[in-house]
Structures are given as C-alpha cells and as structure tokens.
C-alpha cells in the first residue's frame, strides 16, 4: 500500500507538511514500512519564526524498518476497510490524499481513521529514530499511610501499553490507550502553578513528561473520577 498525504492550502508554514508511506507485508507476518515526513514552504520564514512555534531547524523525518505482527494485524484491518473513490478536484480547505492499494488508486471515502493511522505510524517512526521516547505518564497518590506510584507506558513502535504500580507491571489492550489519553488530557494543565520537584505531601499528582508535577485540584483541574478510575 502506498499513501500520500498533504495538509490543505489553509494550513500555513511552519505547520504545513506532507507524508509519504509505503507498506509491504513480509513472509514472516511483519510489515515493512518506509515513512517520510516533509514540512513545506518554510523557506520564506526566519528561523526564529519557526522556533517560536515550537519546531526545530529541521523537523523532516525519513525512516525505514519493520513493524511487528501486532502492527501487521492493525494494518491489514486498515486495508480491508479501505474504500477508494475518484475525486477530480479539491476544494479549498481539503487535505490531499492519494492511496494506491491492490492496483487501484484513489481518494479514501473516510479519512478520520486514516489520519489517526498516519499519526500512529509517525509516532512509531519518531521512537525508532529516537526523536522521541515512548510515552510515559506517572501518577502519584500520596496519603499519610501509603504512597502509590503508577507508571503508564506506551510504545508506538512496539504497539504495547502497560501499567506499573510500585514495581509490579501488567499489560493492557492497545485500544485502551486512546481512552486513557483522552481522559488525562481532557483536564486543564496549569504549568505556571506546577512543581519541578517530586511531591512528598498528601495528594494526587501527575507527570506527563514535561519535567513538571501537576497537583489535582490546583495545577491540574479535572473531574477527579476521570483519573481515579485508573488507580486500582
């Protein structure tokens, strides 16, 4: 399968980008991926303008490698659900898509799941290139008589999601990850009120990888049950 994607004409630099993906199933059940991410039309921007938006001098990425059988199962489901249509022209605001699969080329009739698919492949490539570490979210629940340290870890490269409580690890289904992340990031993070030091006082605290600790009810505002449901 060959996928080409480009953001719409309404997305300005430095945000505008294009992605090209080649996927081929191997005899051992794994999938070979060639992934290329290119940011567009940045030549007209000063470096400071790019950096001010949270990017770096060079954010392009090119990676080639193999994905495991868990990935392969997911990729094959994407292929089986794929329905291509003809689209003679794009309206302003439309993203560009072109997919070739089983000797047919066209525009996908449904793009929401494909967009998520591309984001997950991109994150896997970032991990493989060590541009980003696997996801790690820590939650500390401290009371007068006990301290519970929860670590929620996810690797997009390996397609694994697990939870560790005080050193004891258990695996979770990959599909549970999105629900967990939606709940966590539905809260209001207030970094100016967060702490760089690991908490010691009683309370519920969250670390999302930005070297800060957020306290529930103070620097992290959310309905408590959305977090407490994961703290068994």
Structural summary, described in words:
The protein is built from five helices and 15 strands. The radius of gyration is 21 Å and the shape is globular. It folds into two domains: 2-128, no CATH class; 135-228, no CATH class. Strands 4-3-2-1-6-7-5 form a seven-stranded antiparallel beta sheet, with helices on one face. A six-stranded antiparallel beta sheet has the order 11-10-9-8-13-14, with no helix packed on it. The protein is an alpha+beta fold. It is 21% helix and 35% strand. The protein has helices spanning 47-52, 69-81, 112-128, 176-184, 225-228; strands at 2-6, 17-25, 31-39, 61-67, 84-85, 96-101, 104-108, 135-142, 147-155, 160-165, 168-172, 188-189, 203-207, 214-215, 220-221. The chain starts with a strand and ends with a helix.
Provide the structure class: alpha+beta
Order of helices and strands: EEEHEHEEEHEEEEHEEEEH
**Quaternary state, please?**
single chain
Count the DSSP helices. Answer: 5
> Residue share in helices?
10-25%
Uncertain ranges: none
* Number of beta strands: 15
Total tally of structural domains? 2
| Distance between the ends | 42 Å
Biggest beta-sheet profile: 7 strands, antiparallel
Side by side, the strands of the main sheet go 4-3-2-1-6-7-5
Shape: globular
